[in-house]
């Protein structure tokens, strides 16, 4: 347990469980019982930065938030690496109209992290509401559940895990099927060889892949990345199941739904406006699914619910 005033260079596996080179967080500091700081570094060499390596992808901001929350829980609060952080919803707001990397090097900053709400079950943190701010750059929020491995395995007991047969995909991430006025229907192209979204064994469609897909849809329709993105995960997305993308295009943003065989697995809202932010849509009563480390929080005993993108 880290106390206020301690600055700790973390074992990077606390922020990223399988690939330390993908870690965006390198130190954390306790400010108070509920407030922390995390030193983050987003490299311009990351493949998500291409083909425009001077622009900071909103997906990597979301990843920095996710990793900081996990590092604080694992290394700062002593929850350990055997728990599963299942994200219900994630929101990112970008301050500059166009967020760019420095001329040389990475985007570096100190992320302020506040645990706005913590609910316990049997004396153990179970529901987390975490707010983030990278001053002058971005802010956001993550709502997540903390599940012990036993409960997570019970939820996902019927899930098919990723195997040794890697299914690469040479097509587009978003493959349009039909368009009618301001409504687009598409298929999600999943590349299991992707080094970012599939960097560790998973038993679900990574939530970060769905978040990134929503950002891609917005940029295709509006010509620039979103400055506001919120995503909720009502159910687990299954691996190797066809995922249909339904996007309703508006003047400033996009409302997107992801379904598998008619089952809703994620919703997202994006916006390009520089003024007042749109209201964050709260997930529905059954929503509780994108794992900070692996996937969604659901009721133990059910296998149809979904965790978010894990490291």
Mean residue pLDDT: 84
Biggest pleated sheet? 14 strands, antiparallel
| Secondary-structure element pattern, one letter each | EEEHEEEEHEEHEEEEE
> Looking at CATH, which topology of the largest domain would you report?
Thiol Ester Dehydrase, Chain A
Shape: globular
Radius of gyration: 18 Å
CATH class value of the largest domain: Alpha Beta
State the secondary-structure class. mainly beta
Features:
311 residues; mainly beta; Thiol Ester Dehydrase, Chain A; 2 domains; 14-stranded antiparallel beta sheet; 3 helices; 14 strands; disordered C terminus
Task: Describe the protein in words.
The structure is a single chain. With 311 residues, this protein is mainly β. It has 2 domains: 7-154, Thiol Ester Dehydrase, Chain A (Roll); 155-291, Hotdog Thioesterase (Thiol Ester Dehydrase, Chain A), CATH 3.10.129. Helices cover 14% and strands 34% of the residues. It is built from 3 helices and 14 strands. It has helices spanning 58-76, 149-155, 207-222; strands at 7-9, 25-30, 35-42, 84-94, 107-121, 124-134, 138-147, 174-180, 183-188, 228-232, 244-249, 253-260, 263-271, 290-291. Strands 1, 2, 3, 4, 5, 6, 7, 8, 9, 10, 11, 12, 13 and 14 form a 14-stranded antiparallel β-sheet that branches. Helix 1 packs antiparallel against helix 3 (207-222).
